[in-house]
């Protein structure tokens, strides 16, 4: 049984487990299933409260796929979510990554 399959099996018992859902998104990315991975990250960003690391990981994946404008959007939303949750460290990391991507249209 693969790591992804193990995570999926655990999610049957704990479908709302944030860490398991995040782990599944990470495994899907490792397998090259980018659309499925990004969909899982997107779900996590829509939770209440949003899961802040999902914004950063989605943005990094999008940047690797040369979908930089989408990555910037995730980072802006993630920075706002991190600040709302009082997570200055995550907001700072995402701000640095956003800066590294350059201005829109470059």
TrEMBL record:
InterPro entries: TPR-like_helical_dom_sf
Domain of life according to the entry: Bacteria
This protein's name: Tetratricopeptide repeat protein
Origin species: Lacipirellula parvula
